[in-house]
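Posted in: Structural Biology > Protein-Ligand Complexes

Title: Requesting predicted complex, magnesium ion in pocket

I'd be grateful if someone could produce the 3D structure tokens for the following input. Sequence and ligand are given below.
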Amino acid sequence: MIDQVFAGLEIRDLRVVFDGFVAVDGVDLTVPRGDIRFLIGPNGAGKTTIVDAVTGLAKATGSVLFGEQQLLGKDVHTIARMGVGRTFQTATVFDELSVLQNLDIAAGAGRGPLTLLRRRSGVPPRVEQALETIGLTEALHRPAGILAHGQKQWLEIGMLLVQDAKLLLLDEPVAGMSADERDTTGELLGVIAQDRTVVIVEHDMDFLRRYARTVTVLHAGAVLSEGSVAQVQADPRVQEVYLGTASAGEHTSAGEHTSAGEHADDDVRSA
Ligand code: ADP
Ligand code: MG
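-- Reply #1 --
Done. Output follows.
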């Protein structure tokens, strides 16, 4: 296994083309270690595709350095073993299995399937710590399928923690969460970022204002603006994209995997 470093992310000239359609058009993105970087932008801006490219799911050109390590050209599993983890817009936990079993599977990526599924007497320290961090210690033996929506997202984050991911890319984790669940998730981000780097795609402007350290605004596959929350909110180009022009600016088409256009109404300026 490759040494897991607590590193930052340095993306240069990232380009992703689907069948002639340029989804990511020369993106440069530097996320220092320990940052909580929010990626925002209208539906179709290329946010998920950037996460896909970093994690090996989408073929891309350019450069993606995680610390000293080049991620582009590596396959999904190699990238995961290098300490890069991501969540999906729809949680991908195993509903039939318990919280503990889900974490066990994540922790045991290198172990055989029989050891993985065998009921264990003790909980390994790494799993126990992850359970505590994500607040699911009490739900240990509960089937993941009956967890609340927020808890499923936390379990998915916990699965990345037991894998010892040092760079976490979270794709719209608070979508559909209650206000309380959002607060808990925001606090969780702070804990995670103590010794990890976090990139989070999120549309919820209230959540962004409370928990973002830095923000990158994407539009039509390119970086439109970058800086603190206050800086991007004050940027006229950002206001233009988030005002009436948002739908005109979208270039959504087949393959759109965001659930809805409801986010287009978010007004980045409202405080
Ligand atoms: P965002 O996450 O910012 O809403 P995406 O990264 O999902 O945007 O999509 C960016 C653009 O690329 C959209 O126009 C989308 O339709 C297109 N796209 C995404 N995935 C595919 C794919 N697998 N094949 C073709 N087009 C895609
Ligand atoms: Mg998306």
